[in-house]
User: Which sequence fits this backbone?
Protein backbone atom coordinates (compact mmCIF):
# COMPACT_ATOMS: atom_id res chain seq x y z
CA UNK A 1 0.00 0.00 0.00
CA UNK A 2 1.04 3.60 -0.65
CA UNK A 3 -0.24 6.99 0.41
CA UNK A 4 -1.51 8.74 -2.69
CA UNK A 5 -0.87 12.51 -2.77
CA UNK A 6 -4.59 13.15 -3.32
CA UNK A 7 -5.21 11.86 0.20
CA UNK A 8 -3.09 14.70 1.54
CA UNK A 9 -4.41 17.59 -0.51
CA UNK A 10 -8.03 16.48 -0.21
CA UNK A 11 -10.15 18.54 2.20
CA UNK A 12 -11.55 15.27 3.57
CA UNK A 13 -9.86 14.18 6.79
CA UNK A 14 -11.39 10.73 6.30
CA UNK A 15 -9.37 10.19 3.13
CA UNK A 16 -6.15 10.85 5.02
CA UNK A 17 -7.21 8.57 7.87
CA UNK A 18 -8.00 5.81 5.39
CA UNK A 19 -4.63 6.22 3.68
CA UNK A 20 -2.81 6.09 7.01
CA UNK A 21 -4.73 2.98 8.00
CA UNK A 22 -3.68 1.22 4.80
CA UNK A 23 0.04 1.63 5.45
CA UNK A 24 -0.03 0.85 9.19
CA UNK A 25 0.39 -2.91 8.70
CA UNK A 26 3.27 -2.63 6.20
CA UNK A 27 4.96 -0.10 8.49
CA UNK A 28 4.69 -2.60 11.34
CA UNK A 29 6.56 -5.21 9.32
CA UNK A 30 9.17 -2.74 8.07
CA UNK A 31 9.93 -1.66 11.64
CA UNK A 32 10.37 -5.28 12.70
CA UNK A 33 12.75 -5.89 9.81
CA UNK A 34 14.71 -2.79 10.78
CA UNK A 35 14.94 -4.02 14.35
CA UNK A 36 16.19 -7.36 13.08
CA UNK A 37 19.00 -5.63 11.18
CA UNK A 38 20.07 -3.76 14.32
CA UNK A 39 19.82 -6.88 16.47
CA UNK A 40 22.48 -8.62 14.39
CA UNK A 41 24.99 -6.20 15.90
CA UNK A 42 23.59 -6.10 19.45
CA UNK A 43 25.27 -8.06 22.23
CA UNK A 44 23.35 -8.12 25.54
CA UNK A 45 25.63 -6.96 28.33
CA UNK A 46 28.59 -6.50 26.00
CA UNK A 47 29.94 -4.05 23.45
CA UNK A 48 28.26 -4.17 20.05
CA UNK A 49 29.91 -6.07 17.21
CA UNK A 50 29.29 -3.07 14.94
CA UNK A 51 32.02 -0.62 14.00
CA UNK A 52 31.80 2.60 16.02
CA UNK A 53 32.91 6.12 15.18
CA UNK A 54 32.18 9.67 16.35
CA UNK A 55 30.01 12.18 14.52
CA UNK A 56 30.64 15.90 14.49
CA UNK A 57 30.05 16.96 18.07
CA UNK A 58 31.37 13.71 19.49
CA UNK A 59 28.21 11.59 19.72
CA UNK A 60 28.70 7.95 18.73
CA UNK A 61 27.30 6.23 15.67
CA UNK A 62 27.64 2.62 14.59
CA UNK A 63 27.40 0.77 11.32
CA UNK A 64 24.12 -0.61 12.67
CA UNK A 65 22.63 2.93 12.78
CA UNK A 66 23.72 3.54 9.19
CA UNK A 67 22.46 0.16 7.93
CA UNK A 68 19.05 0.56 9.53
CA UNK A 69 18.76 4.14 8.26
CA UNK A 70 19.52 3.08 4.69
CA UNK A 71 17.00 0.22 4.89
CA UNK A 72 14.26 2.48 6.24
CA UNK A 73 14.93 5.20 3.68
CA UNK A 74 14.27 2.74 0.87
CA UNK A 75 11.30 0.93 2.36
CA UNK A 76 9.47 3.94 3.81
CA UNK A 77 9.90 5.87 0.58
CA UNK A 78 8.08 3.04 -1.16
CA UNK A 79 5.16 3.37 1.28
CA UNK A 80 4.82 7.13 0.84
CA UNK A 81 6.78 8.22 -2.26
CA UNK A 82 5.87 11.88 -1.83
CA UNK A 83 6.97 12.08 1.79
CA UNK A 84 10.08 14.05 2.70
CA UNK A 85 12.68 12.67 5.09
CA UNK A 86 14.22 13.69 8.40
CA UNK A 87 16.55 11.26 10.15
CA UNK A 88 19.33 11.46 12.68
CA UNK A 89 21.69 9.63 10.33
CA UNK A 90 20.90 11.35 7.01
CA UNK A 91 22.05 14.77 5.83
CA UNK A 92 19.14 17.18 6.20
CA UNK A 93 17.32 18.35 3.08
CA UNK A 94 15.34 21.61 3.47
CA UNK A 95 12.75 20.35 0.98
CA UNK A 96 11.07 18.78 4.00
CA UNK A 97 10.04 22.21 5.28
CA UNK A 98 7.44 22.60 2.53
CA UNK A 99 6.30 18.96 2.45
CA UNK A 100 2.85 17.85 3.57
CA UNK A 101 4.20 14.44 4.52
CA UNK A 102 7.47 13.81 6.34
CA UNK A 103 8.99 10.62 7.70
CA UNK A 104 10.84 11.30 10.96
CA UNK A 105 13.19 8.47 11.82
CA UNK A 106 15.72 7.50 14.46
CA UNK A 107 17.18 4.19 13.27
CA UNK A 108 18.56 3.46 16.74
CA UNK A 109 17.33 5.72 19.52
CA UNK A 110 19.65 5.21 22.47
CA UNK A 111 22.83 4.44 20.55
CA UNK A 112 25.00 4.50 23.68
CA UNK A 113 22.75 1.86 25.27
CA UNK A 114 22.88 -0.20 22.10
CA UNK A 115 26.65 -0.13 21.82
CA UNK A 116 27.15 -1.03 25.51
CA UNK A 117 24.72 -3.95 25.56
CA UNK A 118 21.88 -2.23 27.47
CA UNK A 119 18.48 -3.36 26.10
CA UNK A 120 16.70 0.02 26.32
CA UNK A 121 17.17 1.16 22.72
CA UNK A 122 14.59 1.40 19.98
CA UNK A 123 13.74 1.99 16.35
CA UNK A 124 11.56 5.10 16.20
CA UNK A 125 9.45 6.01 13.16
CA UNK A 126 6.80 8.71 12.79
CA UNK A 127 4.89 9.98 9.78
CA UNK A 128 3.96 13.65 9.93
CA UNK A 129 1.01 14.96 7.95
CA UNK A 130 0.62 18.72 7.84
CA UNK A 131 3.10 19.03 10.70
CA UNK A 132 1.50 16.58 13.13
CA UNK A 133 2.41 12.93 13.83
CA UNK A 134 -0.33 10.67 12.45
CA UNK A 135 1.36 7.27 12.46
CA UNK A 136 4.01 6.04 14.87
CA UNK A 137 6.11 3.03 15.83
CA UNK A 138 8.59 2.64 18.67
CA UNK A 139 10.08 -0.85 18.55
CA UNK A 140 12.49 -2.21 21.18
CA UNK A 141 14.00 -5.31 19.51
CA UNK A 142 16.14 -6.40 22.47
CA UNK A 143 13.01 -6.43 24.65
CA UNK A 144 10.67 -7.68 21.92
CA UNK A 145 8.27 -4.85 22.71
CA UNK A 146 6.41 -3.00 19.97
CA UNK A 147 4.56 0.27 20.60
CA UNK A 148 2.43 1.82 17.87
CA UNK A 149 -0.33 4.37 17.31
CA UNK A 150 -2.46 6.01 14.65
CA UNK A 151 -4.01 9.43 15.14
CA UNK A 152 -7.51 8.98 16.50
CA UNK A 153 -7.23 5.19 16.65
CA UNK A 154 -5.53 4.57 19.99
CA UNK A 155 -2.12 3.31 21.07
CA UNK A 156 -1.00 -0.28 21.50
CA UNK A 157 1.89 -2.37 22.81
CA UNK A 158 2.17 -5.80 21.23
CA UNK A 159 -1.49 -5.57 20.21
CA UNK A 160 -2.86 -4.61 23.64
CA UNK A 161 -4.38 -1.18 24.17
CA UNK A 162 -2.33 1.35 26.14
CA UNK A 163 -3.50 3.75 28.82
CA UNK A 164 -1.50 6.10 31.02
CA UNK A 165 -1.23 5.75 34.77
CA UNK A 166 -4.23 6.70 36.89
CA UNK A 167 -2.08 8.06 39.72
CA UNK A 168 -3.95 11.15 41.02
CA UNK A 169 -1.06 13.18 42.47
CA UNK A 170 2.61 13.91 41.80
CA UNK A 171 3.80 12.88 45.25
CA UNK A 172 5.51 9.45 45.13
CA UNK A 173 5.06 9.41 41.35
CA UNK A 174 7.35 7.07 39.41
CA UNK A 175 9.79 9.31 37.55
CA UNK A 176 12.33 8.56 34.84
CA UNK A 177 14.69 11.22 33.54
CA UNK A 178 17.82 13.22 34.31
CA UNK A 179 18.74 13.48 37.99
CA UNK A 180 18.76 17.28 37.93
CA UNK A 181 15.16 17.38 36.70
CA UNK A 182 14.00 14.70 39.15
CA UNK A 183 15.70 16.61 41.99
CA UNK A 184 13.87 19.78 40.97
CA UNK A 185 10.53 17.98 40.93
CA UNK A 186 11.17 16.46 44.37
CA UNK A 187 12.01 19.88 45.84
CA UNK A 188 8.68 21.17 44.58
CA UNK A 189 6.29 18.30 45.38
CA UNK A 190 8.08 16.15 47.94
CA UNK A 191 9.34 12.59 47.59
CA UNK A 192 9.10 10.87 44.22
CA UNK A 193 9.92 7.31 43.22
CA UNK A 194 12.99 7.47 41.00
CA UNK A 195 13.13 4.81 38.34
CA UNK A 196 16.31 3.98 36.43
CA UNK A 197 16.91 6.44 33.63
CA UNK A 198 15.70 5.02 30.32
CA UNK A 199 18.40 5.78 27.72
CA UNK A 200 16.07 5.86 24.71
CA UNK A 201 13.92 8.99 24.88
CA UNK A 202 11.33 7.32 22.67
CA UNK A 203 11.06 4.39 25.10
CA UNK A 204 10.96 6.72 28.10
CA UNK A 205 7.89 8.49 26.71
CA UNK A 206 6.31 5.26 25.44
CA UNK A 207 6.52 3.80 28.92
CA UNK A 208 4.59 6.77 30.24
CA UNK A 209 1.96 5.87 27.62
CA UNK A 210 1.96 2.30 28.91
CA UNK A 211 1.48 3.39 32.52
CA UNK A 212 4.82 1.89 33.60
CA UNK A 213 6.19 5.38 34.30
CA UNK A 214 4.11 8.23 35.73
CA UNK A 215 6.38 11.08 34.66
CA UNK A 216 8.97 11.19 31.91
CA UNK A 217 11.44 14.07 31.98
CA UNK A 218 13.51 15.05 28.95
CA UNK A 219 16.41 17.46 29.09
CA UNK A 220 16.90 20.14 26.45
CA UNK A 221 18.29 19.36 22.98
CA UNK A 222 16.06 16.41 22.08
CA UNK A 223 15.44 16.28 18.33
CA UNK A 224 12.27 15.56 16.37
CA UNK A 225 13.45 12.00 15.70
CA UNK A 226 13.80 11.31 19.44
CA UNK A 227 10.23 12.21 20.35
CA UNK A 228 7.80 12.45 17.40
CA UNK A 229 6.70 8.81 17.36
CA UNK A 230 6.46 8.50 21.14
CA UNK A 231 4.55 11.79 21.33
CA UNK A 232 1.70 10.36 19.25
CA UNK A 233 1.73 7.08 21.21
CA UNK A 234 1.49 9.02 24.48
CA UNK A 235 -1.27 11.28 23.22
CA UNK A 236 -3.33 8.34 21.98
CA UNK A 237 -2.92 6.67 25.40
CA UNK A 238 -4.30 9.72 27.23
CA UNK A 239 -1.08 11.55 28.02
CA UNK A 240 0.54 14.88 27.22
CA UNK A 241 4.06 15.86 26.14
CA UNK A 242 4.87 19.55 26.36
CA UNK A 243 7.46 22.20 27.10
CA UNK A 244 7.49 24.14 30.37
CA UNK A 245 4.76 26.46 29.08
CA UNK A 246 2.45 23.53 28.48
CA UNK A 247 2.77 23.85 24.71
CA UNK A 248 3.08 20.71 22.57
CA UNK A 249 6.22 20.13 20.49
CA UNK A 250 6.30 21.79 17.07
CA UNK A 251 7.78 19.52 14.42
CA UNK A 252 9.58 19.94 11.12
CA UNK A 253 11.13 23.32 11.84
CA UNK A 254 14.41 24.38 10.22
CA UNK A 255 16.23 23.44 13.43
CA UNK A 256 14.37 20.41 14.85
CA UNK A 257 15.63 20.90 18.41
CA UNK A 258 13.49 21.11 21.55
CA UNK A 259 13.89 22.48 25.06
CA UNK A 260 13.06 20.62 28.25
CA UNK A 261 10.01 18.38 27.84
CA UNK A 262 7.56 16.86 30.31
CA UNK A 263 5.46 13.72 29.74
CA UNK A 264 2.63 12.60 31.98
CA UNK A 265 -0.99 11.53 32.06
CA UNK A 266 -3.34 14.37 31.15
CA UNK A 267 -4.64 14.55 34.73
CA UNK A 268 -1.12 14.96 36.16
CA UNK A 269 0.35 17.18 33.49
CA UNK A 270 -0.88 20.64 34.61
CA UNK A 271 0.44 20.01 38.12
CA UNK A 272 3.73 18.78 36.71
CA UNK A 273 4.21 21.98 34.71
CA UNK A 274 3.29 24.09 37.75
CA UNK A 275 5.76 22.17 39.91
CA UNK A 276 8.63 22.38 37.42
CA UNK A 277 8.18 26.12 36.87
CA UNK A 278 7.85 27.01 40.56
CA UNK A 279 10.80 28.59 42.39
CA UNK A 280 11.51 25.24 44.08
CA UNK A 281 11.26 23.38 40.79
CA UNK A 282 13.84 25.38 38.91
CA UNK A 283 16.78 23.24 37.93
CA UNK A 284 19.91 24.22 39.79
CA UNK A 285 23.30 24.41 38.14
CA UNK A 286 25.76 21.72 39.18
Assistant:
Amino acid sequence: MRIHPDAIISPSESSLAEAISEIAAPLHEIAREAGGIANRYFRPGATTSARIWAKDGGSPVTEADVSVDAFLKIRLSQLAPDAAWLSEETADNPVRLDADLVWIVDPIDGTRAFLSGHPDWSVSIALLARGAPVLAVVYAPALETFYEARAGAGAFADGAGLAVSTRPTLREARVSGPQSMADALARSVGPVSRLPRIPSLALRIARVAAGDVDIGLVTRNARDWDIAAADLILREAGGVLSDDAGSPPVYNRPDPVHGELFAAAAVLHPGLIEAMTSPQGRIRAV
Q: What stands out?
A: Residues 174-276 form a domain with the D-Maltodextrin-Binding Protein; domain 2 fold (CATH 3.40.190.80). Residues 4-11 have pLDDT under 50 and may be disordered. The helical segments are 5-9, 13-39, 63-79, 111-116, 179-189, 201-209, 224-236, 269-276.
